[in-house]
Amino acid sequence: MSAVTTAPAQAAGPFDAWLDACEHRDNVDWLADARDRAAAKARAQGLPTSKSEDWRYTALRPLLEQGFAPAKTAAQPAPATIDRCMIPGLDSHRLVLVNGRFAPELSHLGTLPAGVRLGSLREVLDQDPDALAPTLTHLSSAHDQVFAALNTAGFDDGMVLLLDRGTIVERPIELVHIGTAISGGPPPLAQPRHLISLGAGAQAQLIERYIGIGDGVRYCTNAVLEMVLADDAILKHRRIQLEAGSAFHVSSLYLSQGRGSRYDGVNVGLGGAWARTDLIVRFGDSHAECDLAGLYLAGDRQLIDYHMDVDHALPDCTSRENFKGILYGKGRAVFDGRVFVARDAQRTDAAMSNRNLILSPSAEIDTKPQLEIYADDVKCSHGTTVGQIEPEMLFYLRSRGIAAPLARRMLCLGFAGEIIDALGVEPLREHVAEQVGQRLEHATL
Q1: Nearest to residue 293, comparing CAs of 257, 258, 268, 312?
Q2: In which element (H, E) is residue 40 found?
Q3: Which of the residue ranges 108-122, 157-171, 203-217, 398-412 would you say has the lowest mean pLDDT?
Q4: Which are the contacts of 33, defined by CB distance < 8 A and separation ≥ 6?
Q5: Which of 288, 277, 255, 295 lies closest to 436, judged by CA?
Q6: What is the reported pLDDT for 294?
Q7: Is the pLDDT of residue 4 over 50?
């Protein structure tokens, strides 16, 4: 999200290791120039402070204290370990990254339809960089986000998904990010970079999952995803953030939509000690639709932060933002959503909702849905709620012999069910419901 204040920033010193360790293997002038500009921007911009509106509620200190640095060597978990992380019954074209690098021996792309290019970003840059020149880094470079700039300067690998005009991929495409520890050296930093470009009328479904392997592993993911939807293209995108409990997670999503295109995104944030996600949407033409839904759980001293910036610069576009949060223990969450409607964006239809369930007195939510409207022919709304489980409902279940932890799980799953159901794919929906239920049943209040 672009900064809305000009507050002074801290020195970029804590991130010097991220920049100094960048080792580029690119023999591509346009990418080298983009990396140099991004590194210069990160150094000049420095770190946001609490005086920056976008970082008012989220302190960077816990992240900076970890001493993360880009990993020099690649980790190689055993295939059997990876298999245990897969979702039973999920039939997909699977691409696996380990600490930000493509792992071909763990991936199963299968037979792809004609008109689909799916694979490693590094391989495409080495073999056919001109295929990425029109899109890679273009969306992210238009915004002043220091973590996205750090990613541009330092990414090594990621996923590329290019669909030709009219191409339809029936099976879901699954992108699995695996974070794990590396022996020796500082805790590893992974900076995967992903590019999705759908031609006119193309359709696909992407399931993006972040998982950690190992007990108490400490690592950081700083991911950037750029998505370009041409006219009438449709993308269903499901994101499940289930990082290890000691991990740190930063992700920035940039979406550009053509005329009549549709983006349907569902975000679930459950893992990590500290997690921040930015969703930036720009409509490039009219009659486009963007649907953003999300569910987050924060407990056990977790911080989960979602920021949205949806810019309606053109008429006749629709956006929906519907996020729900459940907080327990000493968990903290931040929801900061902004919908901007320009003067010429007549007949905009936008609605933003953030509802939260607080299970313990020590939990905290900072919620700030915003509408900034300059057009006069619009249909816009926003709202937020913060509440607790109704004692009568809990008593009703307890009176029928249901133990308190299970009763709490049932009531919270009822609250979250709308978002879980929106995931659509049954094995994924069941997997997320089980992960949410386990956390709620064993939550420390």
Answers
A1: 268
A2: helix 29-45
A3: 398-412
A4: none
A5: 295
A6: 98
A7: no
The phi, psi pair for 434, rounded to 5°, reads: -70, -40
Nearest CA to 249 out of 280, 281, 208 is that of 208
Which residues partner with 162 through β-bridges? 117, 197
Phi/psi-derived region of residue 288, left when phi > 0, alpha when psi is between -120 and 50, beta in every other case: beta
- Tell me the per-residue pLDDT of 346-396, one tens digit each, with 9 for 90 and over: 999 999 999 999 999 999 999 999 999 999 999 999 999 999 888 788 777
The pLDDT, as a whole number, for residue 3 is 37
CB 237 within 8 A of CB 265: yes
- DSSP of 322-391: EEEEEE-TT-EEEEEEEEEE-TT-TTEEEEEEEEEEE-STT-EEEEEEEEEE--SSEEEEEEEEEE---H
In angstroms, the CA 176 to CA 300 distance is 25
Residues 208, 355, 347, 202, Cα dihedral to 10°: 10
- Spatial distance between the Cα atoms of 408 and 318, rounded to a whole number of angstroms: 36
- The yes-or-no verdict on residue 131 having pLDDT over 90 is yes
d(CA 53, CA 72): 35
**DSSP symbol at 430:** H
Per mean pLDDT, which range of 13-27, 102-116, 326-340, 370-384 is the poorest? 13-27
